[in-house]
Write a structure and sequence with these properties.
The chain has 3 domains: about 5-35; about 50-350, Glycosyl hydrolase domain, family 43 (Tachylectin-2, Chain A); about 360-505, Sandwich (Jelly Rolls), CATH 2.60.120.560. About 5% of the residues lie in helices and about 45% in strands. The chain is built from 2 helices and 35 strands. Strands 24-35-26-31-32-33 form a 6-stranded antiparallel beta sheet, with no helix packed on it.
Length: about 500
């Protein structure tokens, strides 16, 4: 009986302990719900597990095929496979079975795909042929520098099943540790297959009549003033200059480190290619994107109407394996359609969003937001929207995107110093990596602007800023604890804003 007087305290302790455990469970569930809410609604993501570089971008029989670096057993990088999806409009993607698996020659690293319309390789007329890097982890572990070689595989059923060529590798390693990422294209003038391949700190060009037997043509190097890390994911293609009608060649290269705002980035060179050698008069680096989350991008082969469509991986090696998602990790940027502008030896790539994106927009009446144009408003679905407007007076201004948890994303235009400053240091979850907010702010130099036309696209965990129809672009991941719902622009009056438009972006859900 002497213990009865302890029962209330014991019961209370048990209840409190239970409540504490229940609260922890609830918090864990809430955290998982929040983190799964980062799944984009109109950007491509894998159904689950890890994804990085886009690979094998090729159009065939009405579909855009997207292959990608994929590890099906974890949400962090591991033995690489090629995942696979296809789409008719670059927005609604159908997930397909894994295309390529590692084998005795190694993991399946990045590469490209072509349609062999005239059966040059002997695999079959119209065969889809993948060209990729074999990465031998055993050879790497044993200290060999010959662990990366190039292989091919083919599919006769639109990329569903694949047969690897029994003569792999088709290009052996010449003694270069980083020797990878083949981008193959059909050279119309020379009527043969050609390849751009990165080799540590430069690009090599190759040629083949049949995708099996390759001959080296030349090298391209560039005297960088700063170390940019290993060269990766090259792409070479011809484009027509909008102003002059001249044809120039564009070479794209990615770097795992050394980009303008930290970590990974993709740059380009504009020059001439005579079928053997690429050359450029360019004196400094030009970058595809001034944000931190557009990497390893390449363009589609065999597109209709000669469109040059570009897709990049929306992440950065500085923090890619720690971003706060649970079931899946990484997304692709919205596809961009490249345009080449300039004259007198001064050229630049514009990267506007593909025209198909307009088909999934629904206009919101700006009068319902408190004015036309509204300088500030609350919109519950802001983080699934596109905001567009023009600034008619060239002056400094600031845009704030925020939620009710006092998390904010800033876009500042510094007119006097001709640059944009973008700050995500208080954008939401940021402490998963110190590199996520370094640097803060991110800087985009824009020179002397004659106009400012801004498009901002928000999805669950990203913001893409497109200035002057793609003349300058910033792509950022964000991880707010709750969606942004508030918009504000400071430093301008209503009469200095024109053509304000808010669009809700309709879901572009994958079909399976």
């Amino acid at each position: 009986m002497k213990y009865l007087n302890l029962l209330p305290s014991l019961l209370l302790a048990i209840l409190l302990t239970g409540c504490e455990k229940t609260n922890k469970v609830r918090e864990n569930i809430k955290e998982k719900i929040v983190r799964e809410s980062y799944r984009p609604t109109f950007h491509f993501t894998p159904q689950e597990k890890w994804m990085n570089d886009p690979n094998g971008l090729v159009y065939d029989k009405g579909y855009y095929h997207l292959f990608y670096q994929y590890y099906p057993d974890s949400t962090v990088w591991g033995p690489m496979h090629w995942g696979h999806a296809k789409s008719k409009d670059l927005l609604k993607w159908e997930h397909l079975p894994i295309a390529l698996y590692p084998d005795s020659l190694g993991y399946i690293f990045s590469g490209s795909a072509v349609i062999d319309k005239t059966n040059t390789a002997g695999f079959g007329e119209g065969a889809m042929v993948a060209i990729f890097t074999y990465h031998d982890p055993v050879g790497e572990k044993e200290g060999s520098i010959l662990f990366q070689t190039q292989g091919i595989a083919y599919s006769l059923d639109d990329g569903i099943t694949w047969t690897k060529y029994d003569g792999n590798p088709v290009i052996s390693n010449p003694g270069i540790r980083d020797f990878r990422d083949p981008k193959v294209f059909w050279n119309v003038d020379r009527e043969t297959w050609q390849m751009a391949l990165v080799a540590k700190d430069h690009v090599q060009f190759y040629e083949s009549p049949n995708l099996k037997d390759w001959e080296k043509l030349s090298d391209f190097r560039f005297e960088d003033t700063e170390e940019l890390g290993v060269w990766e994911c090259p792409d070479l293609f011809e484009m027509t200059v909008e102003e002059t009608g001249d044809n120039k060649w564009v070479l794209i290269v990615s770097h795992g480190a050394g980009a303008p705002n930290g970590g990974s980035g993709t740059r380009y060179f504009v020059g001439d290619y005579d079928g053997t050698t690429f050359s450029t008069n360019q004196k400094s680096s030009q970058w595809i994107d001034f944000g931190t989350d557009n990497y390893a991008g390449v363009t589609y082969n065999n597109t209709p109407d000669g469109r040059r469509i570009f897709i990049g991986w929306m992440s950065n090696w500085a923090y890619a394996i720690t971003t706060p998602t649970i079931k899946w990790r990484s997304a692709m940027i919205l596809p961009r359609e490249l345009e080449l502008v300039g004259s007198d030896g001064q050229y630049a790539l514009k990267t506007p969003l593909v025209k198909e994106f307009e088909d999934i927009l629904k206009t919101v009446n700006s009068e319902d937001l408190g004015g036309n144009p509204p300088l500030s408003f609350n919109y519950p679905e802001l983080q699934q929207s596109k905001i567009s407007f023009e600034i008619t007076t060239l002056k400094s201004f600031k845009i704030i995107l925020s939620n009710d948890s006092d998390e904010e994303y800033f876009i500042n235009y510094d007119h006097e110093n001709a640059k944009f400053l973008i700050d995500r240091s208080n954008s939401g979850l940021v402490n998963f990596s110190p590199k996520f907010t370094n640097p803060s702010p991110q800087i985009m130099p824009v020179g002397e602007l004659k106009e400012i036309q801004l498009d901002m696209v928000l999805d669950a965990s990203s913001i893409e800023i497109v200035l002057n129809n793609g003349s300058y672009v910033v792509t950022n991941q964000i991880f707010p604890s709750e969606p942004y719902t508030n918009f504000e622009i400071q430093g301008v009056d209503k009469n200095e804003i024109a053509n304000f438009r808010l669009h809700k972006v309709l879901k572009a859900v994958s079909t399976n």
